[in-house]
Automatic annotation (TrEMBL):
Keywords: ATP-binding, Nucleotide-binding, Transport
Provenance organism: Streptomyces marincola
ABC transporter domain span: 19-257
Record-given protein name: ABC transporter
Lineage: superkingdom: Bacteria
Signal sequence residues: none
């Protein structure tokens, strides 16, 4: 990697809130006989410049949480605020605009466009948002993720780890308030996974982005500043400065826990 990254413990000063969820509920198939409550009154608050992992058993609602928090899906109830601005109001066009301005995504399967070059994939969100494409900035950001010499390659000429680094550059190019990563290391070998996780750490600790990452992997989660644990659509625990072995241990006992947080006057739960 070409970037250095700060040691854990070198935290930014306490600051503004990047993401807030208030009593967010999502029912898949609402009204039908197969309705599933995937999120059940989830409230949380994440500060700007934090790196949070979301973990929980299969079916606990992690992807649904990410999709709702990122504005890719709409909750049935509750409020989502990004940088103090409510995302949950408005129509589809407004929501898409909001997302393009404020949100970045990294997916497990990269989701790069195969016919575009690395540089073109990276700047695509700027073009979609009708913003000026600053090629120098794109080159800089690709250099930061170690791909300065791959600008004109196409995705099928890259390794999985390199593709995911393009996806990170693409997520960061718009300088979003929050980057959501859904199993970003799920398809990678150990070494490439470490590179990707270090880049996400850099985005947080050097560039003060806010990252929320869903993962099944306790080692990946240990790169975050904190882990939130979900079970049955509810937040049931939080671990600061997570170590992989402690995360694995907590995951193994998740079913034993009760939802955390006592409702506060404004409806936000304490402790999350
Ligand atoms: N489109 C859908 N229609 C019906 N039910 C759904 C839909 N999407 C998710 N669910 C259900 O909602 C619950 C939460 O799903 P979700 O995908 O958010 O869980 P997850 O924690 O991300 O799981 P995994 O770790 O297996 O990816 C599950 O019971 C799932 O079956």
């Amino acid at each position: 990697m070409t970037m250095s990254f700060l040691r854990r413990g070198d935290r930014p000063a306490p600051s503004a809130e990047a993401l807030r969820l208030v009593s967010v509920t999502k029912v898949h198939g609402a009204g039908g006989e197969n309705a599933v409550t995937a999120l059940d009154g989830v409230s949380l608050s994440l500060r700007t410049g934090s790196f949070t992992a979301v973990m929980g058993p299969s079916g606990s609602g992690k992807s649904t949480l990410l999709q709702c928090a990122a504005g890719l899906d709409r909750p049935d109830r509750g409020i989502i605020m990004v940088d103090g601005e409510e995302m949950t109001g408005g129509n589809e066009t407004e929501l898409a605009k909001f997302r393009r301005r404020r949100i970045g995504f990294v997916f497990q399967q990269y989701n790069l466009l195969p016919t575009l070059t690395v540089a073109q994939n990276t700047t695509l969100p700027l073009r979609l948002a009708g913003r000026r494409v600053d090629r120098k900035r794109a080159r800089e950001i690709l250099a930061q993720v170690g791909l300065a010499d791959r600008l004109h390659h196409r995705p099928d000429q890259l390794s999985g780890g390199q593709r995911q680094r393009v996806a990170i550059a693409r997520a960061l190019v718009t300088e979003p308030s929050v980057v959501f990563a859904d199993e970003p290391t799920g398809a990678l070998d150990t070494r490439s996974a470490r590179d990707v996780l270090e880049l996400l750490q850099d985005a947080v600790h050097i560039h003060r982005r806010t990252v929320v990452m869903v993962t099944h992997d306790p080692v990946a989660a240990s790169y975050a500043d904190a882990v939130l644990f979900l079970a049955d659509g509810r937040l049931v625990g939080r671990m600061d400065d997570p170590r992989a072995d402690a995360v694995a241990e907590r995951l193994a006992h998740l079913g034993d826990e009760v939802p955390i947080g006592r409702p506060l006057a404004d409806g936000v739960r304490a402790g999350v």
